Amino acid sequence: MGWPGERVYAGCAYIDQVELLCIELAKELFRAEFADVRPTSGVCANLVVYTAFTEPGDTMMALSIPNGGHISMGRKKIGGTAGSVRGLEVEYFPFDVEEMNIDVEATAKFLKELSERGRAPKLAMFGGSVLPFPHPVADLQGPLHDCGAIICYDAAHVAGLIAGGQFQDPMREGADVMTASTHKTIPGPQGGIVLSWERFSERIKRAVFPGNVSNHHLHHVAGKAIAFAEMLEFGKAYAEQIVRNSKALGQALYERGFKVLGEKKGFTESHVLIVDISEYGDGRTIEKDLERANIILNRNLLPYDIKLGRHFEAPGGIRLGTSECTRLGMREPEMTEIADLIARVVIKKEPPERVREDVIEFRKGFQKVRFAFESLREAYEYIRIR
Ligand SMILES: *Cc1c(COP(=O)(O)O)cnc(C)c1O
After folding, report:
1. This prediction's pTM
2. Ligand 1 centre from 181 Cα, in Å?
3. If one looks up domain 234-363 in CATH, what number appears?
């Protein structure tokens, strides 16, 4: 419990060293003045931000879930963390489906309206769970700061791409704070992190402990440190290949007849793709069929699903990400093969069990984890010399 060196009980001499090292690596990786590695998940990191920068009843802006927002940014009505745990009133960023992004002009107008009603946001949460294109943090930081909002960027999904310099860099674009999971595009243990500037450090520390975390997951702290060290060493190459792969996979799926969203912008600039599969079935059935073929992806709401009467349990979309297959050494040619395998299940309706045989065969060539230290020794030595 507490900050390294200021814990509220004894016996922490060694975990203090590990945690301070982890913090230094995180700060270097994200070029942040402050890092707190204690949050036990991305949701926990967001709760820390809500605790540090808002009071119950305040307004927060975020993406709605069909447009890519995460349940931790959700309204009370849907059981979202922001609404039901912190008591925030969530207002949604206006969204442009063609662009698959936040509508800057409409947001600026909406901010004026909210201010006139005395409901100016205290916090704006950028980022999301479907984040193919960089959010307009730089364009909106002026209007948001003018109305008194703190800007947070939820990098749960794209933290590894940010670390590798292959996506937007929110901390340079005006974000006051950034949260992330350490297990999505950062290949670390399940966990969370908060990054910020020195001026907010005390508020964030207090929001972590005693606010949201008592014992944190000590056994994950060293794992996070190694993951950050690996990202410092291999992150650029890893993130570059992730993005190349997702663009290639988007193109290959499109060529096989899939309706990949964001078409006019090249499908994606991150690791993630979103595909409207409603003409072939519902997202739940397709997710299950693909899982039977050993292909793991997930069903996902499309921006227009709710309007069409679809529900998150059987939505019209699927969401794919290339971070795992990239880490196993797959490149652009393999993306074409993956698109073929997916098309056989979803479009041609071949029995998943038959496709699975070919997936197993295909996967045999990719058994080694890439963009990683080859041994524990190498990892520990890397940290020691830094
Ligand atoms: C996954 C996700 C989270 C939550 O992270 P956990 O580590 O699963 O708690 C928060 N925000 C966004 C945008 C996410 O996609």
Report:
1. 0.96
2. 6
3. 3.90.1150.10
